[in-house]
């Protein structure tokens, strides 16, 4: 994966980690409002989705775009389909 995508994914995952830690702390408070917890969970999901998108883009550029030149198109497509849970 290209370095720029690696760094971008790492940043997004750090954001997700921060939100997740916040959720854990919130749940220690019996007075926490459920909607606040749900908002934080949604923020984690968004950060994870963003990181996945960055990693996917890097994979497409670094591996998928050059698969036919290497002769491993079928393997690359199958690998990607499995990773994305499509059959």
UniProtKB/TrEMBL annotation:
Keywords: Cytoplasm, Metal-binding, Plasmid. The keyword DNA-binding does not apply. The keyword Cytoplasm applies. One of its GO terms (biological process) is negative regulation of DNA-templated transcription. CDD domains: TthCsoR-like_DUF156. Pfam families: Trns_repr_metal. It is found in: Cytoplasm. GO terms for molecular function: DNA binding; metal ion binding. This is Copper-sensing transcriptional repressor CsoR. It comes from Deinococcus proteolyticus (strain ATCC 35074 / DSM 20540 / JCM 6276 / NBRC 101906 / NCIMB 13154 / VKM Ac-1939 / CCM 2703 / MRP).
């Amino acid at each position: 994966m290209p370095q720029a995508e690696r760094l971008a994914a790492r940043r997004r995952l750090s954001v997700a980690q921060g939100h997740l830690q916040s959720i854990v702390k919130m749940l220690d408070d019996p007075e926490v409002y459920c909607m606040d917890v749900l908002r934080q969970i949604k923020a984690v999901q968004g950060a994870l989705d963003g990181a996945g998108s960055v990693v996917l883009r890097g994979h497409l550029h670094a591996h998928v775009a050059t698969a036919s030149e290497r002769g491993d198109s079928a393997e690359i497509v199958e690998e990607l389909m499995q990773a994305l849970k499509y059959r």
